[in-house]
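S1.2 Input.
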Amino acid sequence: MVRSANPDSSDVMPMTEDQAIQQAMQYHRMGRLSEAEAIYRKILQRIPNHPDALRLLGMVAMQTGHVDAAIDLLSRAIKAKPDLAETYASLGNVLAMKGRLDDAIIAYQKAVQLKPDYFEVCNNLGNASKIAGRPEEAIAWYQRAVEIKPDFADAHANLGHSFLEKGQIDRSIAASRRAIECKPNSTEGYNNLGNGLAQKGKLDEAIVAYRRAILFAPNFFQAHNNLGNALKDKGQLGEAVAAFERAIQLQPDSAEARTNLGNTLMQKGQVDQAVMIYQRAMELKPQSADMQSNLLFALIHHPDRTVESLLAAHLEWAGRYAGPLAGEVAPHGNDPSPTRRLRIGYVSPDFYRHSVGFFFMPLLENHDRSNFEIFCYANVRNPDAVTEKVKLNCDVWRNIVAMSDESVAKQIRDDGVDILVDLSGHTSNNRLLVFARKPAPVQVTYLGYANTTGMTAIDYRLTDSLADPPGMTEMLHTEQLWRLPTCAWCYQPPADAPEIRPREAGPIIFGCFNAFPKLTPKMLDLWAKLMARVPDSRLVLKSSGGGDPSSQKSLRGRFAEHGIAGERIEMVGWIENPKKHLDYYHQIDIALDTYPYHGTTTTCEALWMGVPVVSLMGQTHISRVGVSLLTNAGLPELVAASPDEYVNIAAALAGDSTRLAELRMGLRERMRTGPLLDGKRFTSEIESAFRQMWIIWCERQATMLPK
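S1.3 Output.
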C-alpha cells in the first residue's frame, strides 16, 4: 500500500500500487508531471523494481529533458519485465533523442518482435533508419507501418518524403496524397506533396499544396520556405521574398531560408543584397560548402569585384572545404597504359533540360566508344526526357542523388574512371567535394562555371584561346588551362526550334534574354545611351525575373534617369514552353550581350534564331565567351573592344536594314555549317585533349616507379 496526497484535497488516502499507478497516469496524461513523478517515486520506494513505475517515471524524465536518467530508468524497467514492448519502444525514443540511433533501432526492433502489429514503432524505426542514413530500410519500415494500419497518415507522409529523397517523384506524390486522404489536415502530407509537384514542374499545384499546409499550421517553417522556392521558380519574386522573410521570422537562425532568399534576390538582379544575405547564411552555417559556393556564384556576377579578390574567394573556399580532404586521397591503381581505352566520367546535376545539356549532348553523342567508355554520374533532382537521352547515350549511368560525397568518390574509384569531368563548378547541387577526394587520376572542369574552382585537386580547365588568350588569365586559375584548338563550345539547338521568319517592318527592337544578375548598372546605362542614339527603338528584357513588378519598376527607373521612357522597355518573365521561348526572338532585331558576364546559351539561341549579337570584350573568361562564340559564328566584327565601340556597332547595325534581313535569314545556315555545330570535330578535339592529359599522367607514373 502507498499513501498519496491529492493536491486538490487535504485528505490522505491509502491506495494499492495499481490504484496509485492509475492515479499517477491520470496526472501524467493531464500534464501534471511533478505530481505523477511523486507517486511513481513513492511506489519505487516501496517496490524498487516495479516495472510500470520505472517505465512511466522514465517517460517523465524524457519529457522533462532528463535523457540520461530516462535511459537508466527504462533499462531498469526492461530488466524487471523484459517482455513489455512499450518499454522497448520508450527506450528507443529516448535513445533516438540522445542521438544513439543504432541502439534506438535495436530497441525498436525488440519492441516489434514482442508486438508485431506495433505500427507506431515501425514508423519510428523508419525515422531512425532515415536519420542513420539507411533510406532503403526506412522505406521498408514505413511500408510495414501502413500495411499494419492502412490509414496511418504519418507513415504515408514519411514515405512521401523518403521517396522524394530517392528521386522517386511519382511514388512520393502518391504517398503524400494518401496521407492527406487519411488525415485531411496533414501538414506534412501537403508539404511533401508540394515538394513532389514542384519537382515535376507543376508549380501552380505545388503552391496550392504549400498554402494548404500553412493554412493548417501557420508557423510551419518548411512550408513557408518551400512556398518561397516554388514562387521563385514561378517568377513571382516579390511573393517569394515575402515567403522567405516569413520563414526567417519563424527560424532566424535558418541558413537555408537565407540562402533561398539570396537566390531570389539574385534572380531579381539585386547582387549586392544577395551577397550580404549569403554572407549571413555562411555565418550561421560555416560548415556548408554549398552555401559558400552560392556566394562565389554571386561574386562572379558582381561588376565591382577585382579578379584578384575573386581568386582569393575561390581559394578560401578550397582551403576550407576541399583542402582538408586531401589527406583521404589514396594512390590510383589505374593501368598507366597510354593508348588503352579510357574510362571518362562526367559529373553533373544538370542532365535534364538545362543550358548545360545544349553543349554536352554533342560531345556525348559523338564520343568514339572504341577508345572511350563513358560514365555519367547524375545528381539530377528532377529527371526529364533529356535525362533519359543522356542515360541512353552513355555506357554506365549512376544516380548519385542520395549518395554522400564519400560514397560517390568510392563508386568512381571502383568504376576505374581514368578522367573525371566536373560540369557544374560552383553552381547549384555541385559535387565538388567528390573531386576534392581525387577519385580519378586526372580531373577536369568544364562548361558549367565561368571561373576557376579554386581546387588543386582538379588538374585542368577546358577553354580556348579566344576565351582565355595565352598569358591573359592563367594566373586567375588553380587549374591548368587546356585550350581546345577551335572553340570551347559546341551547340545543339532544340529539334523543335521554330522556323525563322522575316521581321515585320517597324522600329528597331533590341533584346537581351540573359539572367538579370548580369544586367549591371553600367550595362543598363550603356543600353540607355544606345537607345538615345537609335530614336524610337525599344528594348525587350526577358528573364525569369522579368515578370516581377518590383524588378520592372527598378529597371525602368534606371532608364528614366537617362530620359528613356518606360514604355520603350518591355520586360518578359519565364516562358515555360521552350519553343515559345525561342519564338520570342522573332520580335528582336539585335541581341545585346551583357558585360562583364557574357551570355552563352542566350548568344547561341539568338544566332540560331537569326538574331545577331553585339558583345563587349574584356580581360577575363566571363567577358570573352562572346568573343569565341561570335568569332566562330563568323561575326567577329560584332565584338567591341570598348563601350563606345559597342554602342557604335549596335547603332550601325540598327541602321542597316538590308544587313539585318540578310543575317536573319542566313545565320542559321551559317551556324549549321560552321564550327559551333560541328559535333564530330568538337568531340575529336576534346578526345585528343583527354588522350594527351592521360599520356602526361602515365609519363608521371613512369618517373615515380622504383628503380
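S1.4 Remarks. The first helix runs from residue 17 to 30.
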